[in-house]
């Protein structure tokens, strides 16, 4: 990433990178949420999904390929501002940490700047995630639908519990995004630094962006996955299921499923993480170079 580009350029370029992320990664995100939120089988019953491939196959069989893109309107509508604010927060965090423009940030300082960006995004991310998850767990076929799209879901949530219902899971979202964002941006900068020498060709720089972006996505989810599982369960549960919020979700999950459940859905997440985040950073780098060319003083 260019350290000389302004936070405004980070904002605009991050938005474009976010759109690239959703288009590349939403199908595996749908699989992840369905695996995380499927009901526990009763004694003698088989699980709704045996794993990632079984979930993928049943979704396509029952709902067609469009079923993999269920709920995409929510993140696609929110993702441009979410990623824009995230990258803006990272750019601003770097500016605040630096004592002068030529200072090279250490890895902990890059982590801190990235974590700073995670705080910025929650106001948009939490309601978008709530709506997305509720739409994603709706099954196709003859199953009745409670929500007919993003706006209908938001309207019904507001009618049921007001603004608090729409923002259900905000604390879980913060606990996921702050450390995960720190790891995300630090990993990208670190790997890019290792892979790209000063005299690198444009082709090598592009390959390094793909590798560093993909690895950043994997690092992000390794850190953020446990909080994401708790968030998904909390946000999709009927009102009153978890009166004490995340504490009740965590307690019930540990009692019934054990610690490994904190990484439920990890396979589709990791399959999605590399291409989706590689696409994000390729989009970001392309956009910021374009802005540096057309508006050098922005």
Q: What would you say this structure looks like, in words?
A:
The protein is mainly α. The protein is 72% helix and 0% strand. It has helices at residues 7-37, 52-63, 73-97, 107-136, 150-166, 170-195, 202-236, 246-256, 266-294. The longest helix is centred in the C-terminal third of the chain and has 35 residues, at 202-236. It is found in: Mitochondrion membrane. GO terms for molecular function: O-acyl-L-carnitine transmembrane transporter activity. It comes from Parnassius mnemosyne (clouded apollo).
Q: Given the C-alpha coordinates, what overall shape results?
A: globular
Please indicate the percent range of residues in DSSP E strands (runs of 2 or more). under 5%
End-to-end Cα distance, whole Å, is 16 Å
Count of DSSP strands: 0
Radius of gyration: 20 Å
Number of helices: 9
SSE order, as H and E? Answer: HHHHHHHHH
Given as residue ranges, the uncertain stretches (5+ residues, pLDDT < 50) are: none
Structure class: mainly alpha
Protein name: Congested-like trachea protein
GO molecular function: O-acyl-L-carnitine transmembrane transporter activity
Solcar repeats: 5-96, 105-194, 204-290
Transmembrane segments: 67-90
């Amino acid at each position: 990433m260019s350290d000389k580009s302004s936070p405004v350029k980070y904002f605009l370029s991050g938005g474009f990178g976010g759109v690239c992320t959703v288009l590349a990664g939403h199908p595996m995100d749908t699989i992840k949420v369905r695996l995380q939120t499927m009901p526990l089988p009763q004694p003698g019953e088989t699980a709704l999904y045996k794993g990632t491939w079984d979930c993928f196959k049943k979704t396509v069989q029952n709902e067609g390929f469009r079923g993999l893109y269920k709920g995409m309107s929510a993140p696609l509508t929110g993702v441009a501002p979410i990623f824009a604010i995230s990258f803006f927060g990272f750019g601003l965090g770097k500016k605040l940490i630096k004592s002068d423009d030529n200072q090279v940030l250490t890895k902990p300082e890059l982590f801190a700047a990235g974590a700073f960006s995670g705080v910025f995004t929650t106001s948009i991310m939490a309601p978008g995630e709530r709506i997305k998850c509720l739409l994603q767990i709706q099954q196709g076929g003859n199953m009745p639908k409670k929500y007919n799209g993003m706006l209908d879901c938001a309207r019904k949530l507001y009618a049921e519990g007001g603004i608090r219902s729409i923002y259900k899971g905000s604390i879980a979202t913060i606990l996921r995004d702050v450390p995960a964002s720190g790891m995300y941006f630090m990993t990208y900068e670190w790997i890019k630094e290792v892979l790209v020498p000063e005299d690198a060709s444009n082709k090598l720089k592009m390959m390094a962006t793909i590798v560093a972006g993909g690895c950043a996505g994997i690092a992000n989810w390794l850190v953020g996955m446990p909080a994401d599982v708790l968030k998904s369960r909390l946000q999709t549960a009927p009102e009153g299921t978890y009166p004490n919020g995340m504490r009740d979700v965590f307690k019930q999950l540990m009692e019934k499923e054990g610690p490994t459940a904190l990484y439920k859905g990890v396979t589709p997440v990791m399959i999605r993480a590399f291409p989706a985040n590689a696409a994000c950073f390729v989009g970001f780098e392309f956009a910021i170079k374009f802005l540096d060319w057309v508006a050098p003083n922005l």
